[in-house]
Amino acid sequence: MAKLALALLLLLAVAACLAEDEEAELGGSASAESHRRVLQGRGYISYGALRRDNVPCSRRGASYYNCRPGAQANPYHRGCSRITRCRG
Length: 88
What we know:
Signal peptide: 1-19
Family: Belongs to the plant rapid alkalinization factor (RALF) family.
Number of domains: 1
Distance between the termini: 58 Å
Strand content: under 5%
Number of strands: 0
Largest sheet: none
Pfam families: RALF
GO molecular function: hormone activity
Keywords: Disulfide bond, Hormone, Signal
Number of helices: 3
């Protein structure tokens, strides 16, 4: 039981240190570059999205993931189920 409590305390201390480092990075003089570094480390934004002057697809109205001519802009389609109350 004592080992578990010690491990939990250590985990909480590490989490607190990480939170302090994150706050320091986003401090008063936080630039766009530091925001990019924080978000990139978390995995919310891909490396490709962080490249400057990169247009994913120059075709108007096309999906970023499917830039071929004549391709459907939003290929996602959810099936009909009772919980979504769709008709048809």
